[in-house]
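Fill-in record for DMT family transporter.
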Amino acid sequence: MRTAETPASLPSPVSGATPLGRPGAGLDLFLLAVAVSGISLSAPLIAATAAPALAIAFWRNAMAVGALTPLALTRHRAELRSMGRRNALLAVAAGALLALHFGLWLPSLHMTSVASSTALVTTTPIWTTLLLRLRGHRPPALVWAGTAVAFAGVVLLTGVDLTLSPRALAGDALALAGGMAAAGYVLLGAEVRRTVSTTAYTFVCYTTTAAVLLAACLVTGADLGGGYDGETWLKLALLTVAAQLLGHSLINRVVRGLGPSTTSTAILLETPGAALIAALWLGQTPPAAVYGALAVIMLGLALVVRANTRAAR
């Protein structure tokens, strides 16, 4: 009898197909919605937290590792020991790419406009689809169309006001590279998660991310907490729970079943989600385009899901 944990029941890591008719698909979609809600809190929380960007990225991963350690070392110790060299190296590589994503994108927010940075970093599903193509998969035309439609929704909300100043162009390049790094992170996670549990994978991945970001903070001299007040630490803890444990961890949970194409496209919903949360929490009136952008992104996501469902049949 096959179980949900057996590789044969999973979508191909190359194709990224999404068999929505399989048992548990509805739960995966619900968890994906929770994950997107969690990462949507990221930008408003970072904006409201008085700490350096790299330090924020380090602490959200370090705190997540602290929360996962008791579970990982008690219930998943045997699995960690038997992960195998390949899976362990892929998990470490995914963690390094996640650190690179944070390390490139967060500084770009201070070099170029938030609109340009947001639009360029959310090119992740485009790079995901291209990487799948390089691995031998031929994505259906509907996947390309859905990705383009979803990204158009982000551009509709943020705009892309590229300028010619060297600093702004450098910031745009950092944000674009951050989106590429995120695509690699999603694809490697999908590969490891075929045979490794969410807890074991995220423990290795986040530990690597935290270590790399700690090194970056020490090299750049970022304040790691010497002058933080209680409110800042509380916001860092909330960011860890919402964006890291509920956000990234649930994304790592569902990518095994939904596939990298659908998962990376759904992450585009972070942009309008953050705008709506900022309106409710920070009192920032969302632009009228946020509702239209949300509808456009949802349409693009629906096209990608439909294409991958057809491919899985």
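KEY FINDING: The two ends are 21 Å apart (CA to CA).
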